[in-house]
Amino acid sequence: MSDTPGQTKLRTMHPAMKFALEMGPLVVFFIANARAGIYVATAAFMIATFAALAMMWLLARKIAVMPLVSAAVVLVFGTLTLWLQDDHFIKMKPTIVNALFGLALLGGLALKKPLLPYILGDVFVLTDRGWRELTIRWGVFFIVMAVVNEIVWRSVSTDTWVAFKTFGYLPLTLVFAMAQVPLMTRHSAEPAAGADPKE
C-alpha cells in the first residue's frame, strides 16, 4: 500500500551520522576560533548548527526536542554575542541550555508530569520507576554541567573554554549516557501494544 497523501514518512538515522551532526558544529567552532577568533567562530557555529538541523530533517524527517532548543538558544545568544561584541553571551549558552533541560526534567517530575518518556518513549520502554530514576539522573547531570560550564568559562581563557566545549562536553555526555544502560536494562518493560500475554 502507498503512504497516505500528505503524510511524512519518518526515517531512522544511523547513530554514527547522528553523532557526526552533533559533533560537527562544535568542531567548526573550535577550528574557526583557532583561526579567526571567537566572533568569527560564533558566526560559523550558528551557521553549522542550523545546517546540522537541516541535515537531520533531510535524513530522518524529524528533529528531536533537545537539538531544537539548543539551536534556539544558539541563535539568541550568538546574535547577542555578535551584535554587542561580547563573548560572554556565547559562553553562557551551554549554561542556559543545560539549566533549562535540568529544570524542565526535575520540574516535570515534581509536578508528576515526567518529560523524559515523551522524549525517549519511542526508543525505550521502561517501567515507571525506571523513567523516574533516569529522569532524576539526567536532570541532576544537566544542572551539574551548567555549573561546570560557569566555572570553566569564568576561570580559564577563551581558547581553553572552546576546547572544553568541543572535546569535553559531548564526550562527558556520551560517557554518562552509556553509564545509564544498566539502569535501563534493569527497568526495561515489554511494549503493551501488540504483545502476546501468553508468551
TrEMBL record:
Any one GO CC term of the record: plasma membrane
Record keywords: Cell inner membrane, Cell membrane, Membrane, Transmembrane, Transmembrane helix
TM spans (from-to): 12-31, 38-59, 65-84, 96-115, 135-153, 160-181
Highest taxon of source: Bacteria
Membrane topology: Multi-pass membrane protein
Main location: membrane
UniProt keyword Membrane, yes or no: yes
Subcellular location: Cell inner membrane
Pfam families: IspA (PF04279)
Similarity comment: Belongs to the YciB family.
Its biological purpose: Plays a role in cell envelope biogenesis, maintenance of cell envelope integrity and membrane homeostasis.
Name of this chain's protein: Inner membrane-spanning protein YciB
Organism per entry: Ancylobacter mangrovi
